[in-house]
Design goal:
The chain is built from four helices and seven strands. Helix 2 packs antiparallel against helix 3. The strands form two sheets. The chain has a five-stranded antiparallel β-sheet with strand order 1-4-3-2-5. Strands 6-7 form a two-stranded antiparallel ribbon. By secondary structure, it is α+β, with helices and mostly antiparallel strands.
Length: 161
């Protein structure tokens, strides 16, 4: 289904996102000497949260804060476990004086993007172009958190309860 978007919106030069993900923090900048302890904190958080399932819900568009990129995404539900994780990670961010996640987050997985703010143009076509498509019913098993720091990627398992 994702590949339909670039064909349906040729004027926007939509690009697929190679590794779709769901963000639980804003992009942050860590001092080099903080990385090891920060990753340990994220790992500790992951160890106290059980694995869970998410469903992809409806399509939505988002822009970055600078309005230089538009993202096509699928909202996810239920969000209870995501809110729990964000609260725990916000506590960790506070220890480092870093900005917390958004106060009223809209949890989603972005799978395509284009340059500029084209949210309205893309969103207006969702109903007309995709009304014949089945609702997104895919279920995702969330088993780990991925923490990217500089050029390193840390995969941190959630609790296996």
């Amino acid at each position: 289904m994702w590949e339909h978007f670039s064909a349906q919106y040729p004027n926007y030069q939509i690009q697929n996102i190679e590794e779709p993900h769901l963000s639980l923090t804003r992009t942050i900048f860590l001092r080099h000497h903080w990385i090891e302890d920060f990753v340990k904190g994220v790992a500790s958080t992951a160890q106290h949260v059980p694995r869970f399932k998410l469903r992809l819900a409806n399509f939505e568009t988002y822009t970055n804060e600078e309005k230089t990129r538009t993202f096509i995404a699928a909202k996810v539900e239920p969000i209870d476990n995501l809110i729990l994780l964000v609260k725990k990670l916000d506590g960790l961010l506070n220890e480092y004086g870093l900005q917390e996640y958004y106060k009223d987050p809209s949890f989603h997985i972005s799978f395509a993007w284009c340059l500029g703010d084209h949210s309205e143009g893309i969103r207006s076509g969702f109903k007309s172009k995709f009304s014949a498509e089945p609702l997104l019913t895919e279920v995702l098993n969330v088993q780990e958190l991925v923490c990217k720091c500089a050029h390193k990627v840390y995969k941190l398992s959630l609790c296996d309860r």
